[in-house]
């Protein structure tokens, strides 16, 4: 699928790095995947328009149907857990860290909450052209890999009374282990009690193997972090409590429905999953 960009329309910055360029994978999945996988359809109102505006070549991603399914299925997990959290905390601030061109607020806007979509300045500039800020939602440029980002985003601290909702989708697997530890330390040290953190992860056995991934290999990004066992997730920070670990691919078909439990039994971690963590007092 390729649409030539219209005159004067936004384009992906030429200097966009390999990891940032992976934003095209979930964008393509949310734009085109619903028809293929109606059982996990997400109804993204913006993705097709953004994809057309960018004029990017995404056919290699569309040929990778397991990843299309995985993006939609993980979106359903993020949305479902976020909706449950906002039911209990309807005025909570939500933050999508390294958000790419995702627009979770279209699903999570309850008329009372606020939202921050945060990513690298070059991605934020693109968002401002394609998804300009709106009431109760704003785009903010920052670098998740640089310590001190909590204060730069001016987020509430550990003594705030209202918890936060934090989504970190499709990014931590591309960080070095020390960078992942720093990100989680920043959250664990600063988030108000009761805050919810959702992030996806790959297994440690996939680290260094991105060149074999049908979609990621086209971006030049590499998998650099993944837990060896699920109990590692429970020890990432003393205030981050693992509430649940959601499998993503088991509904795709018999190979994954069979392989994922077997892999979990052998190695103690799913091939790919979503971690749901609560910030303790």
Structure description:
The chain has a 7-stranded mixed sheet. With about 280 residues, it is α/β, with parallel strands linked by helices. Helix content is about 35%, strand content about 15%. It has helices spanning about 20, 25-35, 45-55, 60, 65-90, 105-110, 120-130, 150, 175-190, 255-265; strands spanning about 95, 115-120, 135-140, 165-170, 195-200, 240-245, 270-280. The radius of gyration is 18 Å and the shape is globular. Helix 2 (about 25-35) packs across helix 3 and helix 2 packs across helix 5. The chain is built from 10 helices and 7 strands.
The portion of residues forming beta strands comes to: 15-25%
In round numbers, the mean pLDDT is 92
Low-confidence stretches: 1-10
Q: What's the Cα radius of gyration?
A: 18 Å
